[in-house]
Design the sequence.
């Protein structure tokens, strides 16, 4: 399977994860939810350790692994805070600006310099399409105040950190320092542990229902990230990130099918620009 196909599958899984993240915000705050979220990831992934574990015990490998986990920790905090402050389509769209942000890191990490110009044009078009989608009016007018500058800074910060981290993670795979599974397993343990120590989260929201809901969402997130990491192993980080972050397109489709959300001119224009950008990225092999 190609990097583009893997990234698109990751995007579809991400759309479901984003919609469910909005539901999580109804019963738990980000600071109280993250430790449980990543703890569940670690528990669900652990049984596969004997089959997929691969880690080179050298200083630079461990340093890059730690840096990636720390960046991921900060990015995930801003990610969940985004869904507390914004509606799902808006938060998803701004979060997906990370492909455009990632272009600034291409010359720094010297990754993807050989990609055809059409690939980079496609990445910018994807971001432009996502911005157009984020301009769509809210179904619930009472949510309008949540589009304040302060609220929008939350997904923007997450987008910046996610855009950076794909290059840091690519370093791990490029040098064969660890497998995608090993990175994701250790990342989950690290984030859960550090988060619990730093924030002493309140777990009073935990019930049998919320635990099963959280576990179900975690399964979808694991699938999303495994496909993304597999795509990163094969392709250019900026191009892969662009395709993987087209989840707002699928959020829009799912919202329309389930909630009957109406399509307006901004959404139509955003979808058209987004699809053209996705096509350019996929064809360029970015």
Sequence:
């Amino acid at each position: 399977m190609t990097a583009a196909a893997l990234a698109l599958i990751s995007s579809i899984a991400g759309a479901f994860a984003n919609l469910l993240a909005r539901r999580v915000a109804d019963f738990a705050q980000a600071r109280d939810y993250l430790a449980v979220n990543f703890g569940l990831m670690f528990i669900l992934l652990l049984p596969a350790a004997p089959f997929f574990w691969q880690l080179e015990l050298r200083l630079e490998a461990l340093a890059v692994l730690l840096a990636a986990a720390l960046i991921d920790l900060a990015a995930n905090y801003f990610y969940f805070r985004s869904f507390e402050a914004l509606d799902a389509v808006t938060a998803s769209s701004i979060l997906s600006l990370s492909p455009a942000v990632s272009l600034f890191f291409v010359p720094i990490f010297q990754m993807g310099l050989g990609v055809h110009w059409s690939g980079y044009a496609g990445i910018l078009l994807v971001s432009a399409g996502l911005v157009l989608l984020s301009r769509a009016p809210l179904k619930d007018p009472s949510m309008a105040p949540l589009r304040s500058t302060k609220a929008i800074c939350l997904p923007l910060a997450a987008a910046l950190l996610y855009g950076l981290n794909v290059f840091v993670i690519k370093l791990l795979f490029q040098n064969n320092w660890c497998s995608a599974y090993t990175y994701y397993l250790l990342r989950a343990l690290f984030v859960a542990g550090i988060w619990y120590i730093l924030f002493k989260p309140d777990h009073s929201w935990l019930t049998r229902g919320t635990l099963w809901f959280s576990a179900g969402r975690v399964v979808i997130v694991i699938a999303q990230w495994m496909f993304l990491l597999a795509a990163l192993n094969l392709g250019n980080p900026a191009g892969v990130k662009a395709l993987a972050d087209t989840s707002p397109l699928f959020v829009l489709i799912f919202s329309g099918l389930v909630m009957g959300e109406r399509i307006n001119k901004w959404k139509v224009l955003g979808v058209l620009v987004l699809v053209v950008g996705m096509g350019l990225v996929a064809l360029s092999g970015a």
Summary: Confidence is low (pLDDT under 50) at residues 138-146.
